[in-house]
Amino acid sequence: MIHSIEKHDxxxxxxxxxxxxxxxxAAQLIPLAGGEASSDVTFAKAIAKSEAEAAARSFSKQQFxxxxxxxxxxxxxxxxxxxxxxxxxxxxxxxxxxSSNFPTDAFQVHLKLEDGSNAFIYVHMTSSSxxxxxxxxxxxxxxxxxxxxxxxxxxxxxxxxxxxxxxYVNDDGEVVxxxxxxxxxDASLNLTVGxxxxxxxxxxxxxxKPVFEPPADYTAHVKKQQDIAGSISVVSLIYMYVxxxxxxIIYAVLYRRNTTxxxxxxxxxxxxxxxxxNNLNLLDGVKAQLGEQATTRSSEIAMMFVTALMLLPIGVxxxxxxxxxxxxxxxWKKPLWSGFRERxxxxxxxxxxxxxxxxxxxxxxIQSIIFLVxxxxxxxxxxxxxxxxxxxxxxxxxxxxxxWCAAISEEAIYRLFGVAIFKxxxxxxxxxxxxxxxxxxxxxxxxxxxxxxxxxxxxxxxxLIFCYIFLRYGFVTAVFTHAIFDSLLMSLSLVGVGGxxxxxxxxxxxxxxxxxxxxxxxxxxxxxxxQPAALNK
Length: 537
Prior knowledge:
- There is one protein chain.
- The protein has 16 helices and twelve strands.
- By secondary structure, the protein is of the alpha+beta class.
- The protein has two domains: 7-34 and 232-527, no CATH class; 49-214, no CATH class.
- The strands form two sheets. Strands 1, 2, 3, 4, 5, 6, 7, 8, 9 and 10 form a ten-stranded antiparallel β-sheet that branches. A two-stranded antiparallel sheet has the order 11-12.
- Helix 7 packs antiparallel against helix 9, helix 10 packs antiparallel against helix 13 (453-473) and helix 11 packs antiparallel against helix 14 (475-497).
- The longest helix has 39 residues, at 216-254.
């Protein structure tokens, strides 16, 4: 039974949404606007990738004397340093003192030079200045002239000889300096200078890499957290690829008399198309993980093919979850996913979208409170992530479509089918909600938020609220709430990057559920004009 929304419910949820909005603004938006948050959306005045490419090409001609035959620009980030400064509440101080010369984020421009060699040029994201490079060519220089040449170059970059006494030659034949006076909390600046011999006695600086290195115990701690998160993620993948896919097919067959295999075909195909497209849109993020490993067009095509192949089973799992979940709930006389032909369907969808906006804003406030509590209770902190960076998306303005992909797939797999299957097994609603919610939560531990269980705690709470929305107001309301909740957060990235197209797209995505619901209601009323407006009062 899908409950109607009473007048007192509307008033209660409106008040809660207003409170949630105020909390979200105070806890999230204001710190973000002030540059206090570790985020990929803080570069409001970032230069265009074309400008970064032009700066890199010009630098190559000047520094190496070679023109570039091709260029590929991605966003690269030093997640270790940004995470450490976030944890130590030093991001603001870092931005003021060091970000202009030693940024944690830069555009990495891969140049294929005319002599066949590869060069990686790092361009400042706001000033377009060159902040580092690595030209993979030349022969090693003997240690004594190497150190002298590297020191001379470092002095030309503003360092004094007195600051460069702490140094050594690494295994790659490059000089690593630890300049004195460049320290923030327990992180210190590492300056790597590579000098290579070209033809005859000619030599040049082929590498310049200044980075802040966090203390070893922090690096080890993050590595341990990532390893644990990776292992836990396997459990979530098994749940989705094996448990859900296999059981959803079985139960779809078992409950076929209570549903139809026509249900969910359209929505599953739409989901699969946009899900694959959005993941291919993140290809630059995958290349960012490879660092300075040059990729070819053929290898990129291979990555795209493998990505699409791996995502197809998820589309199949979504389809059978929709069929099986719908059949199970209807067999219990609790049709939580209303059908287009059912009485009052259009009005139900219209009311659901209004309620979903309120729920989404309430969830923003609850999420903000959870993060604040965890930050103070267990010292949670976040870092940057090039794989999810808006600057690593080929077509940025379609990014919020991921919100709809997540809403459809996760509500189908973890709520419509997930809650149903465990309710059938355990005959207990809370356990039936908790188990798939935990599986859903551990599927998000790969995000750069530490400790890894921060997101587990957050999403168990959020997930149980989604279960309540689903059980009380139905699958449609749960999907709309999830889509609006994620769309609001993702649209912030578009606004953060800026630009007319991105800001316009952000506004469209935020209001998109309204015209969708209006069209469905109008279409339903046109097809079923004599049916009453109420659904399951």
